[in-house]
Fold this sequence. Notes:
CATH class: Mainly Beta
Strand content: over 45%
Structural class: mainly beta
Largest sheet: 14 strands, antiparallel, barrel
Oligomer: single chain
CATH topology: Porin
Radius of gyration: 22 Å
CATH superfamily: Outer membrane protein transport protein (OMPP1/FadL/TodX)
Order of helices and strands: HHHEEEEEEHEEEEEEEEEHEEEEEEEE
Number of strands: 23
Helix content: under 10%
Amino acid sequence: MRVATLSIIASATLVAGGYKIPENSVNATALCAAYVANAHGADAAYYNPAAMVYNDDVGFFEADATYIGLPPIDFSGVSGEYSSKRENYLIPTLHYASGKLGNSSARVGLSVVIPAGLSKRWDDIVPRSTAQEFTLRTIEINPSVAFALSDTVSFGVGFRVLSSEGVVKSTAAVSRDMEGSSVDYGYNLALMYKPSSAWKLAATYRSNIDLTLEGDAKLYVGAPIGTPVYNGDVSVTIPLPAALNLAAAYTFGSGTTVEAVYERTFWSKYKQLDFNYPVSIAPLTPYFDDPKAKNWENSNSYRFGVTHTMDAWTWMGGLEYDETPVPADTLGYELPDSDAWVVSLGGRYQIDSQWNVGLSGLFDVKKSRDVANSSINGEFSNARVYLVTAGVEYRF
């Protein structure tokens, strides 16, 4: 069912609070995504299109691949002890930034990234009754253009095309099996100010995209898959929320750049999960048709990155504190999210005037979380995320 995608997106365990994936290049992984004011090269097209204006007057192309590993999350509570399944993913991304267009200052860019998704699966009886599988796959195509407004100020704008597909399954006395896809649209804006050769200040904004899923659902009474009650259309709308980034970077004479980024993600847009069917699905209405309160909260991320450039080598490291948007009273097995500390390291090597290669890694440690609400009473622990990104950039 196309709509299932959305349920999925709203319930994946990801690399940031909620279901976002902010690391979509070697540099972003190496710096914990503290890569806005100092964005440069091909991936500036995604992280700060206004920064493309300050690239060298050549074309840049970058291809990356990111491994994401999600070890099992443990739960211990009144109902028992369970562990989710291990998840492993390989995610490709592409970035392009042009040289100057003719005699103008304008540049164009294109990024193909994975902005959200992944999966959470449980085999034990209690968690699989609501979250046997929630899987989301997304691809975003993001063309952009940038202009110099003056010698020190530039502006960028982009158009976002987001394709999503997913799977939702739960097995209990009442069961569901859904899968589907959707295409939705948004935009992004960027503003950059260089008051001196050492300082860079930037602000970027990514719009909310409502994922308007439509698809098919199969609903059953009886476990594991019993008497079919409904086989037909379903729809749901869930937000991929807007995000505002404010960043400042300073470059010392030694070739070291430090950057601080504050991100505000407007998760309060996600108030409920409400599946809609064209006909009555009684007697399953209380399970699959009644709106489920989410009431997520706007959240903050605080990122700090250091980049040191040598002759052929560039070394990077990052630190981040990431708040979860998920309140305790609506938290479930589909997304047992919590606040997290994140650390990262990486490097790039300039092979010659055209080619460079990079490798970076990130470790996300989520805090243990006690939950006592209408459906869960216990503690989630040992939530971790591992990322390794490898990539190559070409100048032409």
